Amino acid sequence: MHIMPLLLDLIPLFVFVVLDSIGKMRYALIGAITAACFELFFSYIAVGYIDSFSIIFAGSILLFAALSFYFNNSIYFRLKPAIIGGVTGLIVITTSFLNKPALLAMADHYSNFFPDTMQDVLVTQHFRDQLANTNGILGIGLIIHSSVTTWAAFNAGRWLWFFISTPGLYIIIFLSILVSI
Question: What pTM did the predictor assign?
Answer without folding.
Answer: 0.83
